[in-house]
Amino acid sequence: MRPLLLTKLCCPQDKSDLQIQIFLKEVNGDILEGLLTCATCNRYYPIVYGVPIMTPDEYREKALEEPILAKWGLRLAGNQSQTFMLAAPES
Fold it and tell me: What pTM does this model have?
């Protein structure tokens, strides 16, 4: 994903701006792995193989996303209503 694309993206849930954490970049600056997060609704959207995964909640699969988050040292919040929200970092 090219960094310029970030200026065009917003949260599909509430249309808020997204923050990014970059985990892996190519030499040319393209983002291969990362995480887009919405500060308003606390949802996350992973970037995998350079593709931001921004599908609505009802089409996402928690079982497919948990290994990706675990690879980056992140985990999901606990209950069903928070299925696609990140847990608060441990202090």
Answer: 0.83
